[in-house]
Amino acid sequence: xxxxxxxxxxxxxATLSRLTVPEAELETVVQDVGAILGFVDTIQSVQxxxxxxxxxxxxxxxxxxxxxxxxxxxxxxxxxxxxxxxFVKVPKVxx
Amino acid sequence: xxxxxxxxxHTKLMNGEITVAALVAEYYDxxxxxxxxxxxxxxxxxxxxxxxxxxxxxxxxxxATALTGIPIALKDNILFAGxxxxxxxxxxxxxxxxxxATAVQKLKxxxxxxxxxxxxxxxxxxxxxxxxxxxxxxxxxxxxxxxGGSSGGSAAAVAAGLCVxxxxxxxxxxxxxxxxxxxxxxxxxxxxxxxxxxxxxxGSSLDVIGPMTHTTADAKVFYDAFKGQDIYDGTSxxxxxxxxxxxxxxxxxxxxxxxxxxxxxETNFKALVEKFTAQGFTIDEIELPHxxxxxxxxxxxxxxxxxxxxxxxxxxxxxxRAESISINDVYGDTRGALFGPETRRRILLGTYVLSHGYYDxxxxxxVALRATIRKELExxxxxxxxxxxxxxxxxxxxxxxxVNDPVSMYLSDLFTVPANIAHHPAISVPSGKxxxxxxxxxxxxxxxxxxxTLFALGTIVEDIR
Lengths: 95, 465
What we know:
The complex is a heterodimer. By secondary structure, chain A is mainly α. Chain A is built from three helices and two strands, in the order αααββ. Chain A has helices at 7-16, 26-40, 73-78, and strands at 83-84, 87-88. A two-stranded antiparallel sheet of chain A has the order 1-2. In chain B, 61% of the residues are buried. Chain B has an eleven-stranded mixed beta sheet with strand order 1-3-2-4-6-5-10-11-9-7-8, with helices on both faces. The interface between A and B is large, with 50 and 65 residues.
């Protein structure tokens, strides 16, 4: 069982997820993702009563609005592949 | 081969029969000589020596804990400040952790010796460690077989005596399935009992850090050292007091009827059912109509969460980056070139199920079904200590056997996924071996926060198997 996806659909998803898929791999990706979708499609036929949608376990978690110093900002900036002084460097965003 | 337990080593360390340095050297040397590819990195001798000095001092001044001086391994997705942590991905090959995971901080405070980080499927996505960017780990029982995954490096390291215990993380079976494949004990704790702070996020509503050890008693000692509520994880919780054993187990009706279960596993499981009955247990087959739907629910919810969690790996904030010119090419080329095929598949799949026009049919339906599965397990476990199943449908499969068929790979998580979906704890305990010498495991899924019940059941398996 498999759901038919097109190369165009995969290319669109790749653009949405900022993920370059090489042309040569496209066909395999189309087939693999289609096979997985075919597998998960089984849930479409499961009948559910409407009250089960309520997920009783989910509730708000509150905490004091207090600062807990964890890690120096400097260390986090250092983790970026390109950085200068106290800034993360990025390519030009506006043409 | 039998390796000593945490309690045995603790006694030897406390009465001076062995020093921390000698104990750590024994495991470290074995790990260094091993060709299983269980470790991504063994930490430097200087690093280990500093940890050993702290442990020796704790023993000397009377502040030692049960884990002081015990050699432990970290899965390569748990942060240890100042050490590289890669998620076994190319994209984080050179990333150094800026802080300690809460679980790591607790181990350090307990005086445990963290000797290295273990191989895994990239960002914990897989069931065999074959999705690691650094090659598969081999199963110590048969090196042509996978050790399971995603915590396969941790499983192989414990099973081969390269460390006494190891951290795993379990999103859909990633502790229990490799534990079963390598003949060790693996616990998925109740979601929230262990802080996720410092664990690389895969599926945030599913991820749990847990122990991988030789015995159930070891799993308890290790787990007790790193559980607990944490201000840095809003979903963490404190467990209520344990309930007494009911001596009642439930088997989901029809699990052996659909085929796909290895006959030796079925025989092994049914023999154990007999032995539990002989111990005065009542064992019933019960209807869990949506138990088997868990896997499909999982392969919708998990990729959806993966696609958003992994958005942060963009070549800008962490790790390595492609040398492209425009910002969109930096994102696309970094992620396209440095994520492996399975990670890319799951990001695309997650993006699909969350996209306009499909959201209701997939994601919302899966969320509703998740609530149904949770209610089903919760109701069943009011009357039983645990749901009892084999951990996996088959023993360890061959390296390369399933890499080209993702769906068949996913089916090895058939019995493990429901506990993650429902936020219930579950333990896998070794139950025997195949005629070819490959280990089997059985699984108990307990009520939420019933880890003590699972430890009690695991200990019984160790006595009667």
